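Hi P.,

Sorry for the delay on this. The queue was packed all week, but I finally got your sequence through. Input first:
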Amino acid sequence: MNQPVQIQVNGRQYRLPQQPTVIVCVDGCQFEYLEAAAAAGVAPYLKHLLAEGAVFQGDCVVPSFTNPNNLSIVTGAPPAVHGICGNYFFDPAADGGRGAEVMMNDPAYLRAGTVLAAAADAGASVAVVTAKDKLRKLLGHRMKGICFSSEKADQVTLAENGIEDVLGLVGMPVPDVYSAALSEFVFAAGVRLLETRHIDLMYLSTTDYVQHKWAPGTEGANAFYAMMDKYLRRMDELGAVIGLTADHGMNAKHDPKTGQPNVIYLQDLLDDWLGKGVDAGGARVILPITDPYVVHHGALGSYATIYLPRDIDADAIGQRIAAMPGIDVVLTNAQACARFELPPDRVGDLVVVSDQSVVLGTSASRHDLTGLTVPLRSHGGISEQTVPLLFNRKTEGIPGKARLRNFDILDVALNHV
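Then the structure:
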C-alpha cells in the first residue's frame, strides 16, 4: 500500500499498515511466562523484546475470558460496544423467547465491526489464524481475506476461508485440540503466510492449553515459549511490525497441600438458600468461561453472573455471597457494567468475582473434573487482568502515564510505532 490511509472503527482512527503488521494474542499469557523463558535462556528473541522493544503493562477486559478479550482486541472497544461478554451466556430471546443458555460464538451476537474487516474493505490484505474454531467466525465477521483455525485446518475452502490446502502450506498435520501443537500451528501458519503472500495485517490467536497446565518457569511452559520465540523471530526477519498481548492471565486455583480445586459452587448454595432450583423458578448461575473445550478447566473460572427471581432481594443475596471467604467482589448489574464496561442486557442481576486462588462453579454434580490431570489453573477474575503489551519497534506519542488495555494494541501498532 502506497499512501497512508485512515479508517475509523468504533470511534477510533487507525492508519492502514505500510509494512506487514502482526498482532499476536497469546492466550493465558502474563509477564511471568515471558520473563521466566527469557531468564532460562530458551527464548532469546523474547529476551530481546523485553529489553529493547516497547514494553507496557496493560489490562484485559473483565471477565478475563477468551471471547470478550479477543473481540475487544479486534474491535478496539470494550464489551459494552461489541456485545461479546463471555464465551457463554443466558439469551432471553432464545428458545422462542423462553430463554436459554447458549454459546456466544455466533456473529449475530456481535454488535460492532472489527478493525480487521474495515482494513480489508479499505484495500488491505488481511489474514486471521486462530487455534480453536469457536473464534473464527467472530474474528472473521464480514472480513474479506484469509481466516481459518488450526482445529479445522483440514476443512478450509477458498469460499469459506479465503485459502486452500492449509496443511500443504504449513507442512503440519491437524493438531489435537488439547495440545501445545494447536498453538504452534497458528505461528507456523502465520510465518508461512508472510513468506508466501503479501499480507498487510495479520491477527494470530492461540489457545491456553499450556498455561492451564504449566505455571511460569516450568518445563512445559518454557518449552511453549521457546517454540513461540523462533516463530516471532522469523516474523521479525520478514520485516513485520509485531504487537503481542494476551486475552488474560492465569493463576493457580487449587489447594497447594491437596491439589484439589478451590471451588465455591454458587448454584448449590443458592438452591439451598432459596429452597428451590432453576426449574422451580429459583436463581440461575451462568459461568461465562464455559465453552466446548472444558477438559483443562472443568468450566471453572473466577467470574459468574446470577439471574435472580423478581421477588428476591438482590442486595441481601449479594451481601451474603460477598461475606464468604474466597470472594473478591459482588456487584449489581449496574455496578458491574459500569466498572467493567459490559452490556447490561447480557449480564445477570449480580456479578460475582472470586479471588486469585478460588474458582466459581454451578452445582458440583454438573462439573466433570476427571479431565484435570494436574492441579487446576484458571482465570476470569480481576486477578487475571494484568497482561503484557510488547512491540518489536519503539513507540511514540503514547502518554507516559497511560495504562494501556489489550484492546489498545492495534492503535499502538498502527498509529504509534
